[in-house]
Amino acid sequence: MSRRLKVSSAQLGPINLADSRASVVKRMIEMLKEADSRGSKFVVFPELALTTFFPRYWYDDPNEVEKYFENQMPSPETQPLFELARSKGIGFYLGYAERSEEGGKAHHFNTSILVGPDGRLVGKYRKVHLPGHDDHRPNVPYQHLEKKYFEVGNLGFNVWKMFKDDVRIGQCICNDRRWPETFRVMGLKGAEMVVLGYNTPSDNVYAPHEPPYLRVFHHMLSLQAAAYQNGIWVIATAKAGKEDGFWLHGGSAIVAPTGEVVAKGTTEQDEVISYDCDLALGEYIRNTTFNFAKHRRPEHYKLISERTGVEIDLAN
Ligand code: CDV
Hints:
InterPro entries: Aliph_Amidase/BUP (IPR050345), C-N_Hydrolase (IPR003010), C-N_Hydrolase_sf (IPR036526). Keywords: Hydrolase. Residues 5-279 form the CN hydrolase domain. The protein is α/β, with parallel strands linked by helices. It has one domain: Nitrilase/N-carbamoyl-D-aminoacid amidohydrolase (4-Layer Sandwich). It is built from nine helices and 14 strands. A six-stranded mixed sheet has the order 5-4-3-2-1-14. The longest helix has 19 residues, at 212-230. The site of 3-methyl-2-ureido-butyric acid has 9 residues, from loops.
């Protein structure tokens, strides 16, 4: 019997500041129903899916930013989504801003979770690669303050088994997808599929000469390279469109282990794309070109885990 998993990526269009969580969850529920009508068993929602992409805004008062964070998951507003998914036997990935109390202290993370088809929490991830800055730069059209509002994730990159076929699924968030190390760690842990959500501005405020088409090209390049180089399925879901005038690109995609794009969003609105993934497809890649056990040479990769930034280090 072949192992297959029908997945859907449920892209969200813009969420403006005035939009309530309840209204967003309503939209997510409609997309979950659409995914169910197509026979999907797994739905991937975006990064920070419940609110606008708030790290673009500077808040002087730290208490003001607390309104974007969830103290528990499921929260009262997301409970209907969890209930519907469980009643339909659908698992999902959800990104949100997490506030947790640990060691008597409040912590803030950019988090995603995997929820099983029985409604139970399977696994949690806290974003490792936080882009942007933590200082105030009022002279740019928008800021990117993930380094101010979130701590670096402390759970590492993990892989969990899900669904009746024990599909090995890893998760990461947005900027993580640009770093090959993210996927290689999960590849080494036996991932067959990696899922992620993202919020990516269409313009690069710190390099304004970069055109929007290049932003989408680099996004796709990262997904396709990661899929092929690890022989895994990659599902990536955007929050897209103009949030109070700030433009996030779409391009939600399902990428096969061959590196080929098998489904891609065509809008910057709420949109579901689906594909029936053959989990055996990556095996030949993982057994030949990227047979890690046979061909990797970690003795020559040490610098990757020892050095963060470039130090000019010439051999002549
Ligand atoms: N949410 C993100 O991590 N966004 C980044 C932007 C800032 C480049 C990304 O890598 O898409």
